[in-house]
Predict the structure.
Amino acid sequence: MRLTACYVLLSFCLFFSACTSFSKNPLSEQGYYGNDPRLVGVWFQSGDSPNFIHIGQGGEGLMDVVVVEHNKKGTLDSGPLKIFTTSLKNRNFINYRSPVNKKREAEGSQGARQEDDVYLILLYEITELGDLTFRFMSDKYLAANIEKGRLKGTVSRDGWLKVTITDSTSNLNQFIDEADIDQLFGKPSKPYRKLVLPLPSSSK
């Protein structure tokens, strides 16, 4: 499954080819670091199916995100979601809570068991040219380190590799700090360019 299509299908399970690595805990408490204001705006990625990411500040320490993809049939795919950011030693990360039970998500939060939810964690970078890229955790790297006891988690190889990190937030932060970042996180996504939009006129 293509990167951008996954963004829409998993509402920012943000666009990837195989969403199989999750964490039971985020990298920080929601809103603890504040959210990165550089992300606010509209980001565009060109290609066969051009897509846009609209990001704005939300409430309760979250950011509101809407992803819109223009597909080849001339129709739109879109998906809203909420994220929050974490900064660790000059690196920036996105935390996206993805409910395990998608039916529960569709039916709303009533009766939801948040302890069943898991987080998708992404490394993002904004280059000197202003391009935004995302990098996803490597299933293989995480699995190898869990099996060696360097990180708490579960590894399933039933049909495909699936990894769930169960370690605490502090231990996960330490693991990321000590890891080879280029092995822990895959190659950057195709870049997004921030669009310059006209300022809304003030009403009189």
Remarks:
- Residues 1-18 have pLDDT under 50 and may be disordered.
